[in-house]
Amino acid sequence: MRSDTATDVFEEHRPVLFGVAYRMLGRVADAEDVVQDAWLRWAGADRAEVREPRAFLVRITTRLAIDRLRQAQSRRESYVGPWLPEPLATDAAGSPPDGAEHAVFAETVTLAVLVVMESLSPLERAVFVLREAFGYPYAEIAAVLDRSEAAVRQLAGRARRHVEEGSPRYEVDPEQQRDLTERFLAAAAGDDLEGLLSLLAADARLVGDSGGKAKAPLRIIESAGKVARFLLGVAKSQPAGMEFGLCELNGGIAVLGHQGGVPDTVLQLGIQDGRIRTVYIVRNPDKLGALAAG
Question: Among 263, 237, 235, 269, which residue's Cα sits nearest to residue 251?
Answer without folding.
Answer: 269
